[in-house]
């Protein structure tokens, strides 16, 4: 049944296709949007389009950015010799929020999962290995403590070991199966400080 007319229904349908938005939230958002002043709606839709058009992967760490090099990679104050490997951009953001990590990142965009058919070639691992030809002292593996995260950590450490570069894994202050992005900053810091050599 189309209670609202096709345009509102279309908006609700588009919104409810987004992750984490159920049909009730989609309805609430749709009504909120149509009640917003025109210039606010314009700004919202432009920011969606601009982000889609301009956001790409940083050519060094593969986080999402609208520049060739992200603000972290291009910051001369960051220690390029220390690379923290994370599964996704949200995990990077979680560590950045602590404000205490001075190194740089490498975003894998996933984790190895034989169950889901995701192999080493499906994540940004080759790109990480290429970075290691540069001046790198430590690779901190901060993948999630899920089965996939642990599998990925083991795989990476085996790959890097022969290069002589120090490989560490964040401590298990991070709960098993826990997604990094939902963990509080104190726990993240403790995990970073308590990292162990692999
Ligand atoms: Zn970067």
Describe this structure in words.
Helix content is 41%, strand content 14%. The chain has 198 residues and is α/β, with parallel strands linked by helices. It folds into two domains: 6-54, Orthogonal Bundle (Helicase, Ruva Protein, domain 3); 64-197, 3-Layer(aba) Sandwich (Dna Topoisomerase Vi A Subunit, Chain: A, domain 2), CATH 3.40.1360. The protein has a five-stranded mixed beta sheet with strand order 4-3-5-6-7. A two-stranded antiparallel sheet has the order 1-2. The longest helix has 17 residues, at 38-54. The protein is elongated, with a radius of gyration of 20 Å.
Short overview:
The chain is 41% helix and 14% strand. It is α/β, with parallel strands linked by helices.
């Amino acid at each position: 049944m189309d209670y609202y007319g096709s345009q509102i229904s279309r908006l609700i349908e588009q919104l409810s296709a987004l992750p984490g938005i159920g049909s009730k939230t989609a309805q609430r958002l749709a009504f909120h949007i149509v009640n917003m002043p025109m210039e606010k709606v314009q700004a919202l839709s432009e920011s969606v389009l601009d982000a889609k058009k301009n956001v790409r992967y940083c050519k060094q760490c593969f986080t999402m950015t609208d520049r060739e090099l992200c603000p972290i990679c291009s910051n001369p104050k960051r220690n390029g010799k220390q690379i923290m490997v994370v599964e996704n951009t949200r995990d990077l953001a979680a560590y950045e929020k602590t404000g205490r990590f001075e190194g740089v990142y490498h975003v894998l965009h996933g984790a190895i999962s034989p169950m889901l058919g995701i192999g080493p070639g499906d994540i940004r691992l080759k790109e990480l290995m290429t970075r290691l030809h540069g001046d790198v002292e430590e690779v901190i593996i901060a993948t999630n403590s899920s089965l996939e995260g642990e599998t990925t950590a083991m795989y990476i450490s085996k790959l890097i070991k022969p290069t002589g570069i120090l490989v560490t894994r964040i401590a298990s202050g991070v709960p098993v199966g826990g997604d990094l992005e939902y963990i509080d900053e104190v726990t993240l810091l403790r995990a970073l400080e308590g990292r162990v050599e692999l």
